[in-house]
Write a structure and sequence with these properties.
257 residues, alpha/beta, eight-stranded mixed β-sheet, 11 helices, 8 strands, 18% strand
Length: 257
């Protein structure tokens, strides 16, 4: 698997499709890795040069010391595009990846033709809750988080009907870097883009999960109201909607781009 150096982090990535095709980047959620996008890269690789990567502190990417910032997470994407000699791409991120997408649309609009942000918010959760979670993970590891992840990520019917998919994602979380997870919690604690949404000028698609208890439809509506010309669609899924409702998720992206 290819790895490149992004300032202080080694970022693991994988590409699918023809490098001559338009570039499409996928950014994972907290506690997952690039494999969460399997149903997307299989679908889009015939028409796009699909790029998936593990956020710093996740998957096979390295875990630099110190609390991370949203700026670091965003600039890792820019450095990846530079590494691949890609001047402009479509970006799709979910949850933490969706917050990264908003930051990129604000700070690097020239590098993206379209940005899709799914199951996310301009500010995700409360600062103290993220700091408390970071402390818990440092003290007890990721197992306590992993044992309750399924109920946050998926609806009950999906959990019952797709136990292998759910277990694989929860196992990936449990096996991940507790320190990397904690560092990203600290990035999420500080990240607040609400005041900057009005500055986004490039096309934005917001995908909200109708049954998402983490980043709600109301969070998505707030983004739509404050981002000029943003489009909002709702999907019948919980927080990891690209897995739970992959066909609908893919179709919404397809129509948008």
């Amino acid at each position: 698997m290819p790895i490149f150096q992004s300032t202080d982090a080694q970022i693991n990535y994988q590409t699918f499709g023809d490098p001559a095709s338009p570039a499409l980047v996928f950014s994972n959620s907290l506690g997952t890795n690039y494999g969460m996008w399997q149903q997307q890269f299989n679908y889009f690789k015939e028409r796009f040069f699909v790029i998936c990567y593990d956020s710093r502190g996740h998957g096979s990417s390295s875990t630099p010391q110190g609390s991370y910032t949203l700026q670091q997470l965003g600039e890792d994407v820019i450095h990846l595009l530079d590494h691949l000699n890609i001047s402009k791409a479509v970006f799709c991120g979910i949850s933490m990846g969706g917050l990264i997408g908003q930051w990129l649309a604000i700070h690097y609009p020239a590098r993206f033709s379209h940005v899709i942000v799914a199951n996310t918010a301009a500010k995700i959760g409360q600062e103290q809750a993220w700091l408390d979670r970071a402390k818990l993970v440092r003290e007890q590891g990721l197992k306590p988080i992993a044992t309750t992840a399924a109920s946050r990520w998926f609806t009950d019917p999906f959990i019952q009907s797709h136990p292998i998919v759910v277990n694989n994602l929860c196992n990936d979380l449990s096996a991940g870097s507790a320190i990397g997870y904690a560092h990203c919690c600290e990035a999420l604690a500080k990240a607040d883009l609400r005041a900057a949404l009005k500055d986004i000028q490039i096309p934005i698609l917001i995908i909200a999960g109708k049954q998402d208890p983490v980043t709600t439809v109301a969070d998505a509506q707030f983004m739509q109201q404050h981002i000029p010309n943003a489009k909002l669609v709702e999907i019948n899924a919980s927080h990891i909607s690209n897995v739970e409702a992959a066909d609908a998720f893919n179709q919404f992206i397809n129509q948008f781009i």
